[in-house]
TrEMBL record:
InterPro entries (alphabetical): AB_hydrolase_3 (IPR013094), AB_hydrolase_fold (IPR029058), GDXG_lipolytic_enzyme (IPR050300), Lipase_GDXG_put_SER_AS (IPR033140)
Family: Belongs to the 'GDXG' lipolytic enzyme family.
Pfam families in the cross-refs: Abhydrolase_3
Active-site annotation: 160
Keyword Translocase: no
Record flagged with keyword RNA-binding: no
Alpha/beta hydrolase fold-3 domain ranges (all copies): 81-282
Organism: Photobacterium rosenbergii
Name of the protein this chain belongs to: Alpha/beta hydrolase
Length: 305
């Protein structure tokens, strides 16, 4: 961890100490604890307030799927970015990701629509994915009903597990998507990458915890390779894609391997690797402000090129 920013390194040591103590006490993980943990670190370390002119809480047209719409310039018809939050298909919400959604809207000057898809274990695979597909299919009608000024130019983004959902949509409905942004995405449910061994513990996201997340998500003996976006067929009209990976992330190889597949097929794609960062560093912004700022700048440049 020698190259990690000192503030992040110091916090990570305290995080690992607390994790070790919990293991020694035999405290088993629970969905509630995992959700509280993600919410707590985001609230603690993404603190700078970003004002957005128009914020609307509503539901995707004709469904019970909650969403929050962030319009940075309500008088202008801006392009749309649908955002699927991370959290291992078990954690995260509109509320937890509100500060990150605001930053995405502010930096990209897109209308960001964050989706509250259903979470495991109460709603296992493929229920969350179904919510995301319906959100994509109904986003135009949703915005029209609200008389929101927007361009019929839809891009999608996701971090971690949200990256898996976004990639699945890009593979299934590429004709509906302009661009795809993947932030340290989880793309392989089969654990086939070396980085899951090399960085298996000590870096926030641990391989054993990933296994636990997936066991909550897949409850009916599904073929996990078939469900993995990393191995799914890539359509020839796959949207242009930007991938962001982190050097101290056990799932970093999944993003790198997907980028290689896109390159081989000649699909426009770009990859930015933050070698000194951990998984979920956007949720730790105050510990790595420069890297987070650069990430949002990359997203802005890609979406508005």
């Amino acid at each position: 961890m020698a190259d990690m920013p000192p503030s992040l390194q110091t916090w990570l040591k305290s995080f690992n100490d607390a994790l070790s103590q919990a293991k020694q006490l035999g405290i088993p993980p629970t969905p509630e604890m995992a959700r509280l943990g993600l919410a707590t670190i985001t609230q603690q370390f993404v603190t700078a307030k970003v004002e957005i002119s128009q914020v609307i809480d509503t539901h995707i047209n004709g469904t019970s799927i909650p969403c929050r719409i962030y319009h940075p310039s309500p008088d202008a018809a801006l392009p749309v970015l649908i955002f699927f939050h991370g959290g291992g298909h078990m954690c995260g919400s509109i509320a937890v990701y509100d500060p990150i959604s605001r930053r995405l809207a502010h930096h990209s000057q897109h209308i960001v629509v964050t989706i509250d898809y259903r979470l495991a274990p109460d709603h296992p695979y493929p229920k969350g994915l179904v919510d995301c597909i319906m959100s994509l299919e109904e986003i135009v009608h949703t915005l029209e009903k609200l008389t929101v000024a927007f361009q019929h130019n839809i891009s999608i983004a996701g971090d971690s597990a949200g990256g898996a959902l976004a990639t699945s949509l890009a593979q299934r409905h590429p004709e509906m998507i302009n661009q795809l942004v993947l932030i340290y995405p989880s793309l392989d449910y089969t654990f086939s990458s070396d980085s899951l061994v090399d960085y298996r513990e000590g870096y926030i996201l641990e391989t054993a915890k990933v296994q636990w997340y997936f066991d909550q998500y897949f409850q009916q003996g599904e073929d996990r390779r078939e469900a993995s976006p990393l191995f799914s067929a890539l359509p020839s009209n796959h949207p242009a894609t930007m991938l962001i990976t982190a050097g101290f992330d056990p799932i970093q190889d999944e993003g790198k391997r997907y980028f290689e597949r896109l390159q081989l097929l000649g699909i426009p794609s770009v990859h930015h690797h933050f070698e000194n960062m951990t998984h979920a560093y956007l949720n730790l912004e105050d510990l790595a402000p420069n890297d987070c700022e650069q990430t949002y700048r990359y997203i802005d440049s890609f979406l508005n090129q």
